[in-house]
Amino acid sequence: MIHIQKATIHDAKILSEVGFHSFKSAHGHSAPKKDIEEYMTKNFTENVFFKELSNEKNQFYLIKYNEIIVGYTLVIFDKKEAQILVEKPAYLSRIYLLEAYYGLGLGKQLFDFIKSLCIENQQSGIWLNVWVENLRAISFYKKMGFEIVGKSDYQISATHSNPNHVMFLHF
Q1: DSSP state of 9
Q2: φ, ψ (nearest 5 deg) of residue 148
Q3: Could you tell me which residues are beta bridge partners of residue 127?
């Protein structure tokens, strides 16, 4: 059984755990090991998620599969991006799923939920950044209707950044 629910500050610990493992499986080889470890140690703490959850602009949602939290998403409404030339774009900051649950259609269900939520909140589309070597994610986003519209860099450490595509889905 699949269930999607809004996250609360009480979910900071599980979000940090799911985020840590999801990021590691998708990006663990995207930079030198030391840089990745430092990035993950700094950015996937319970305290970081507590602060993010406390920001009312951040919309976190958990996806449960058979009562187990296996992923989450973070969407921010009305978040402008210079390469996105529409009013009221939503930013899909994260859509993370534990690797053990790939192939079950959970990512699509979570994305469909977010898309509906964005439409209900009068957003004109969704944009995101995705690492250019994350071919699985790029393929998924293209199947969902996204198009590559630009480029960005994602800072992992003081000495390393990953090239990203900016992708956009217009409603």
Answers
A1: G
A2: -75, 125
A3: 91, 168
Number of domains in the chain: 1
Residue 120, domain extent? 2-170
Write phi, then psi, for 121 (nearest 5 degrees): -100, 25
The structure's pTM equals 0.94
Residue 23's SS3 state is helix
What CATH number does residue 28 fall under?
A: 3.40.630.30
For the stretch 88-144, pLDDT in tens is: 999 999 999 999 999 999 999 999 999 999 999 999 999 999 999 999 999 999 999
* Cβ atoms < 10 Å from Cβ of 20: 16
User: For residues 120-145, b (16+ Cβ closer than 10 Å) or e, as one string?
Assistant: eeebbbbbbbbbeebeebbebbeebe
* Predicted pLDDT at 27: 86
- Which of these, 111, 102, 104, 98, lies nearest to 169 by C-alpha position? 111
